[in-house]
Amino acid sequence: MEKDSVLEMRHIYKTFPGVKALQDVDFTLAKGEIHALMGENGAGKSTLIKVLTGVEEFETGEIMMEDSTHPIINRSPQEAQKHGISTVYQEINLCPNLTVAENLFIGREPRRFGMIDWKAMNKRAGELLADLDIFADVTKTIDQYSIAVQQMIAIARAVDMSAKVLILDEPTSSLDDSEVEKLFRLMRRLKSEGVGIIFVTHFLEQVYEVCDKITVLRNGRLIGSYTTAELPRVQLVAKMMGKDFDDLAAIKQTDGGTGSYRDEDIVIKAVGLGRKGYIKPFDLVIHKGEVVGFTGLLGSGRSETVRVLYGAERTDEGELFVKGKKLAAKHPIHSMYEGMAYLPEDRKNEGIIADLSVRENLIIALQAKRGLFHLLSRKQQEEFTDKYIDMLQIKTANRETPIKSLSGGNQQKVIIGRWLLTNPDFLILDEPTRGIDVGTKTEIQKLVIRLAKEGMAVVFISSEIEEMLRTCERMVVMRDGSKVGELSGEEMNQSAIMSTIAGGQ
Amino acid sequence: MKKKFTLNQTSFLLLITIVLFFVMYAVGCVIFKDQGFAKTQNFLNLFVSNAGLIVIGIGMTVVMITGGIDISVGSFVAMGCMMLAWMMERAGMGAVPSVLIVLLTGVVFGLVQGFLVAYMDIQPFIVTLAGMFFARGMTAIISKDMISISNEMFMGWAKMKIYFPFGGHVNRKGEMIYPYVYPTVVIALLLLAGAFIMLKYTKFGRSIYAVGGNEQSALMMGLNVRRVKLKAYMLDGFLCGVGSILFCLNTLGGFVEQAKGFEMDAIASAVIGGTLLTGGVGNVIGTLFGVLIKATIEAFITFQGTLSSWWTRITIAALLCFFIVLQSVLAMLKKKK
Amino acid sequence: MNNTLKNITSKRLFLPIFCLILVLLINLVTRPDFFSIEIRDGVLYGFLIDIINRASELVILAVGMTLVVSASAGTDISVGAIMAVSAAVCCNVLTGGERAATEYANPLILGFLAAILVGTLIGCFNGVLVAKLNIQPMVATLIMFTAGRGIAQLITDGQITYVRVESYKTLGSSFPGFPVPAPFIVSIVVVAATVLLLNRTALGMYIQAVGINKKASGLTGIKAVLIIFLAYAYCGFCSGLSGLIASSRIYSADANNIGLNMELDAILAVAIGGNSLGGGRFSIAGSVIGAYTIQALTTTLYAMHVSSDQIPVYKAIVVVIIVTLQSPGFARWRKALAQKKVDRAEGKEAA
Amino acid sequence: SGNSGSGSGSSEGDTAPASDEAEDTGSEGDADSGELITVGYAQVGAESDWRTANTESFKSTFIEENGYKLIFDDAQQKQENQIKAIRSFIQQEVDYIVVAPVVETGWETVLEEAKEAGIPVILSDRMMDVSDDSLFEAWVGGNFVKEGETCGDWLADYLEEQGRGDEEINMVTIQGTIGASAQVGRTEGMANKLEEHSNWKMLDMQSGEFTQAKGQEVMESFLKSYDDIDVVICENDNEAFGAIDAIKAAGKSCGPDGDIIVVSFDSVKAAFESMIAGDLNATFECNPLHGPRVAEIIQKLEAGETVDKIQYVDEAYFDTSMDLETILAERAY
Ligand SMILES: Nc1ncnc2c1ncn2[C@@H]1O[C@H](COP(=O)(O)OP(=O)(O)OP(=O)(O)O)[C@@H](O)[C@H]1O
Ligand SMILES: Nc1ncnc2c1ncn2[C@@H]1O[C@H](COP(=O)(O)OP(=O)(O)OP(=O)(O)O)[C@@H](O)[C@H]1O
Ligand SMILES: [Mg+2]
Ligand SMILES: [Mg+2]
């Protein structure tokens, strides 16, 4: 082993049926280093992490750790933890039935006289979260919190384990800027304590902000390891995609024709719509061809609001008009008949249907809209599937692969495809770019703008404000479950948004 | 922020169960007031006659929390009773070694089932269904004929009464009779308390919940999921051993058809008590009340005393249905709020 | 593309078929005439015919059970009791309420319809409890499991009701001039109709989607509640139908014994067919093979003169072997073993 | 709630029943109501027609007109339920407890509880295996071993009559549910007779679990294993019906004019119909009408008399040589 390195992986090979996920990959992590692992969706980042931590077995290769004289193999995450590797996986892994405190401490609960000391555990959990500025009741079960909070808790758990190696697989995908900032502070602290950190993300700014080194994977192969300072952004992207790519400048909102919408073009009109205890009544109008963003802090109720619009959640006050017709959806299908589509933020629990194939996952919404007895012919199904695999560049062994064995980003693309296929008039996208690589992300943003141009009304939620500024014409600002403002045109900029979010305080 | 006292869904379900039990018992006391439903002894009989079920319900609850199920318990009880009867009556063994052997058998049985579930990844329902067939068949292999127990020490345990110093009444012969329980009740309640503490305050206990809540997550959080499951089934096996001994102290013999359908009683008790078959949620206190509710329903039927056989079944089912639906509706109302 | 799909399905069913063949082959050792089939009285006769004949009820139940398991990740333990109710209703309609009759009091078809209707209604009741009220399947169906035989006894007044009319026995024996047992034909029709229904409509996909992820399928516009309800109703329908066959075999309604313990065999058939009891992906063919495996096992054990009270022990052992052979744990172990062999070979080469 | 059935001693409860009796029960009834003898009856279940008839015999005997109040409990074939029921009867302070035990074992403690409470216990159908005889007052039931022996004797006579007395006779038995006392007793009785006839050969025994469907399945298997079965002994009528179907399906015939002799036990009505149809040769009765006998015992105990501990009910047999139509018309079950 090189001196100073805590972890070395050499010549790692891993094959899934139909996919060579890792081929001859090397990876070295030094002490006190933040090391970015980069690559497109399906490049093999998560797989590399999984074979390291024993979730998956690798075929050949070796893994060396700082203090071991011979190669180690982790057969389970438990063994990996014993070797000082603590991990936050891409898909959040917490037990929904346990409290926040337990999720933080399970397996290493504070004990007194051999018995779990709940008081101490809750207290320490509270401190830990306060440290990270997360405000959550540690005695509540975890399923009562949004994805973002859960992600913070998963991070808190990993961080608290005082490991030698900390692995974060896309921890920031659903966090907004302030949370990301908190996380970075923490990472820097751990770094100064000598912890080696592997950091997977699709946000280039974040990489350049905290990482010392970058390792790039493409199609399961190692492209190279570089020092951050020596690898310009453009080159990084080129290495990831295998071709030159101008990542950001690509899109700019062209015609921000605010106010130029006619009343006939109203697609959605909410009057005093609300849900007691969650969403305070709000009014909202969305026109044909408009992209409206929802912004706010973590847990401000953005997701909840769009769920109410879609009819995924019962409303108990107010009215909703879709294209002038009153809609009281008892079931999402009624909203779908009116031309709505909704991409939920919780991909794992509300998006993918894990054991179904890519094909079935893609066509299922369209099928549901057509009805039970109008089965799409196999040929049609396959045509649609191929079209979207091509259009969204979904990386999959074939169309019959179960969606659960796709990489996170590719799963997301399938779900986006699912809704596009229904050809909606009103499309709700809650964090559509979560976990999607830079290349495709811009594609998706372009797609949204194109669809809007073609006459679709779109609601777009993202924890990344810049992304929203690029795509949206109007922003709805939420705070504590109520709509506190609407910004458009000139007033739509970062600082204005921030001050609206902060509101009177 | 003001911290409101809010019950979460699970404790709410438990509370419903407990309240409904007391309401039901009170109703019984009113309806059958002339027939002695309200006697202390009648209440204690709920425990006396169900000590074995309580213990087995605990084991069932534990495996159900891991997301499993054990439908072999009824057959295992039959086998356990038959083993006890055979060892003491046919092989002339003492009561103590016989009891120990049954306990050991329980643990081994649990070990094998647990191994198949945890390490071979076979579905619990199927493993324990095979266990059910196996135990029932073994019972027949040990002896096709029923065996009556007459071992002195064992009979001594069975007949030992623990009297309460109060609440007595005068019987028809004019003697004062105080309410009593058998040691089986004490054992069952002790185990219940032990299981409660184990589930709430030990690492193993919490791991059981974690595994049931989300196996994949539990694994990724670094728990040894397989070992936890194996241990849960072993504990269940041990409790089945104890349960069958308690059962045998009540029925004092072994025969092939014994405890048929007992697994359904245990599962129903656990579920009525708020345990989810999907795992991750459950509480042994709930299971105790589940048992008591079932016992009370049965007591209703017996006190009523005019139902024909088929009406008995239908009435039990109707009461069960009423109870389960009420529970579910209340839980849904609470969720809506 | 289609070929690869076929490869996967055939692989999926390979193990269950293999197990069935294995069970059948055991007989070759002990009983060479096991596989002989002859025609007696214009009907096929032999052990193999017994198996496909006797398994019919189980096959039909397994079809319904598969859908229930897939859609709700739970089991319907009331199917045996439903069989009893349907038999009771049918016989009672046909005898006009008498305990025995030598001619129909009502047209035969009326009895059949009534029985199947009642089966389906009970299925609907289960469906409402599970789908609408969110009660756990096993507990929801426990209600009918408990009440079913009571209802059947109530209908028949606690006694066995006989329909002593030759035509009533048809369904349980054979159609005139047709050498294949009638129950077998009925079961094959049910299987075929179900497969068609699932594949020609989106129902198959919906059921699986709901079983895998209820929330997600709800958001994509599938009415999960309705789908689960339908699965239970269909299972009730299947149970009603197999109740009829069982009743026709004994031309009577025996509330205590028709369909006794069938629910366990039906669930077992689903599992032996390689389906997960955790819901989701399913294969009807697998369940059907599972059902035949179970009946083959029972018939084999009878043919080997195993006493009926000890049969469960052997059944348990064979079941454990079958499911172990199919289990992921066993596959892992086999892989590890193969790996070791490769390693050793490589080691030799190196040396 | 407190309706006529359960409302003990409530005055409305007694005036409610049929008005045609109002005059003669009017005054007495009220006086009687205090003296009604309460009987707690713990029945096994309703697992067969025989059992239903058995229950009916109690229900029709212990009626208020006869001075009784019956508290009926159905144990659903579970012993633990019966134990619960007896405990409940004790709490209800009934005057007598009647038990038709699910099994013979395991009654010691609960009977002692009854004894402590001073309630006499009477058994019906099955015996109880207890160390202390004084725990129950009397037992009423059939003699299964004797039934088996009667069957053997009948068979010997019948074969003699047919001139096959010295022939080699091959038999099979479709047994009842293994371990049930009817199964044990009948198998034993038949075995006793088998010893007396060296030319009788028992080829096989297999349980048909007292059901028609299983009986048929077992018989199918027998027929495929043995070519020359002369006699089929079915340990209840239902099994015989199944066996007959299997025999016919195999292209053979049975009954008095057939190849195979079929006999069975219990003598339910359907068995008579089967004999009339010429399928079944004979059936041996197992009398379910225990109610009146138990009532008799209770009356004696009330009068302070002693009673016999063991009391067999009368049992007959029926074969195709009798006037079955007439007998059938008179039978209660
Ligand atoms: N369990 C599995 N079975 C089959 N294929 C798999 C499995 N897991 C991953 N793969 C495949 O391996 C490849 C690498 O996936 P991986 O999850 O490592 O990608 P990733 O780099 O993490 O992508 P993302 O940025 O989208 O998270 C993908 O093509 C994926 O389809
Ligand atoms: N930090 C938090 N503290 C307490 N509750 C929270 C928090 N975050 C989310 N919640 C819960 O989530 C509900 C709203 O969540 P919702 O998912 O709609 O928010 P969001 O604006 O989409 O935020 P996110 O970034 O988490 O997706 C709130 O009513 C609250 O109960
Ligand atoms: Mg990934
Ligand atoms: Mg959100």
Automatic annotation (TrEMBL), chain A:
It is a peripheral membrane protein. It is found in: Cell membrane. Residues 7-244, 261-505 form the ABC transporter domain. Pfam families: ABC_tran. One of its GO terms (molecular function) is ATP binding. It comes from the Bacteria. The keyword rRNA-binding does not apply. SMART domains: AAA. The keyword Transcription regulation does not apply. One of its GO terms (cellular component) is plasma membrane. Gene3D superfamilies: P-loop containing nucleotide triphosphate hydrolases. PANTHER family: CARBOHYDRATE TRANSPORT ATP-BINDING PROTEIN MG119-RELATED, GALACTOFURANOSE TRANSPORTER ATP-BINDING PROTEIN YTFR. This is Sugar ABC transporter ATP-binding protein. It comes from Schaedlerella arabinosiphila.
TrEMBL record, chain B:
It is a multi-pass membrane protein. It comes from the Bacteria. One of its GO terms (cellular component) is plasma membrane. It is found in: Cell membrane. InterPro entries: ABC_transp_permease (IPR001851). Keywords: Cell membrane, Membrane, Transmembrane, Transmembrane helix. The chain crosses the membrane at residues 12-32, 44-65, 71-87, 99-119, 125-143, 180-199, 232-255, 267-290, 310-333. GO terms for molecular function: transmembrane transporter activity. Pfam families: BPD_transp_2 (PF02653). PANTHER family: ABC TRANSPORTER PERMEASE PROTEIN YPHD-RELATED-RELATED, INNER MEMBRANE ABC TRANSPORTER PERMEASE PROTEIN YJFF. This is Sugar ABC transporter permease YjfF. It comes from Schaedlerella arabinosiphila. The lineage of its organism: Bacteria, Bacillati, Bacillota, Clostridia, Lachnospirales.
From TrEMBL, chain C:
It comes from the Bacteria. The keyword Glycoprotein does not apply. One of its GO terms (molecular function) is transmembrane transporter activity. The keyword Transmembrane helix applies. It holds the Pfam family BPD_transp_2. It is a multi-pass membrane protein. It is found in: Cell membrane. The chain crosses the membrane at residues 12-30, 77-96, 108-129, 184-203, 224-246, 311-331. This is ABC transporter permease. It comes from Schaedlerella arabinosiphila.
